[in-house]
Amino acid sequence: MTRLGMTVPFDNVPLGEQRDRFVELEDAGYTDLWSAEAMGADAFTPLALASVWTPSMRLGTAIVPAFTRGPALLAQSVGALAQAAPGRFTLGLGTSSDVIVERWNGIDFDRPYYQVRDMVRFLRASLTGDKVSAEVNGTSIKGFRLGVVPSEPVPIHIAALREGMLALAGREADGVILNWLAASDVPTVTKIVHDAAEGAGRPDPQNVEVVARLFVAVTEDRDTVMALGRHAIAAYLNVPVYRAFHEWLGRGEQLGEMWRLWGEGDRKAALEAILDSVVDELIIWGSAGTCREHLDAYVDAGVTTPVVALLPFGYDERAAARALAAAG
């Protein structure tokens, strides 16, 4: 495994007090720090701190929603962070979900494919420092010129679940970001990415980077993993975009009863309906050595950059991060 990322920041620790945790990751051999954006810290602030705290590490967002910032503001955020960490920042952009976009931000989750496609094209143009006029999902942007131009090109990765976005990543992005999938699912999704890259005439279709955010619990307490893992899976896979993803992957029969009961409002029964085998497929757990073997299975299947997201299942997460790195 040539790259290994960690999801930051860590929960339940004030952001300004996480420097030692970030530095430990760098010292342990992690190559990447990737932030997310839901209801905690925004995606850019932890990476701005990391640009100073961990000067050797690559920094990435997995992901920034394409809807929740205007095009000019998003370009400013990208340009500023790219200047703070020259050559070390990768923008991961995606649709996010209707929950985050509509319910929490009051923005219409309208034509998400076009929002991502047009935002990627706008950012590509604006990050050169040229004056840009463009259409982003039906909205006109007129005469914007970015004042913080990166010294090096910023790679843009697209978060993708199903065929349309996967193919868009292959045609127009530097990489694809995957989430909530089993190692056995990786060839299904990466084939679409690589085929689209080849169809677009890209010089080396296999070089589209594949980043996967993988949920890890470094514990051998099976009962805890099964109980808490069901909660984590239900929280995500009942969101419409993730339900559609797993139906497409062929888990309709395995997850159908959970979806039915959840829709009827019987949350307890819905959790009980999630099979142990689904938890084992979607959550990496066990000793540090076992977890690294499972991470390696994703790499063997086609992931180029696994990014660990530690699940808070009652173990020492700081020690677990070190043990994971040492087990490689």
Outline:
The chain is an alpha/beta fold and 328 residues long.
Q: Can you lay out the helices and strands and say which pair or pack?
A:
Elements lengths: L4 E4 L10 H10 L3 E4 L8 H10 L4 E4 L2 E2 L5 H14 L4 E6 L3 H7 L7 H15 L5 E5 L2 E6 L11 E4 L3 H10 L2 E5 L6 H14 L9 E9 L4 H16 L2 H10 L2 H12 L3 H6 L3 H7 L1 E2 L2 H14 L3 E6 L6 H10 L2
Helix pairs in contact: 1-14, 2-3, 3-5, 5-6, 6-7, 8-12, 9-10, 13-14
Number of strands: 12
Order of helices and strands: EHEHEEHEHHEEEHEHEHHHHHEHEH
The biggest sheet, with number of strands, parallel, antiparallel or mixed sense and barrel status, is:
8 strands, parallel, barrel
**How would you sum up the global shape?**
globular
CATH topology of the domain at 1-159: TIM Barrel
CATH first level of the domain at 1-159 = Alpha Beta
Mean pLDDT: 97
Residue share in β-strands:
15-25%
How much helical structure, as a percent, in the residues? 40-55%
The name of the CATH architecture of the domain at 1-159 is Alpha-Beta Barrel
Return the structural class: alpha/beta
Name of the CATH superfamily of the domain at 1-159: Luciferase-like domain
Unreliable residue stretches: none
Please work out how many helical segments DSSP would assign: 14
Oligomeric grouping of the chains:
single chain
What distance lies between the first and last C-alpha atoms, to the nearest angstrom?
Answer: 8 Å
Round the Cα radius of gyration to an integer and report it.
19 Å
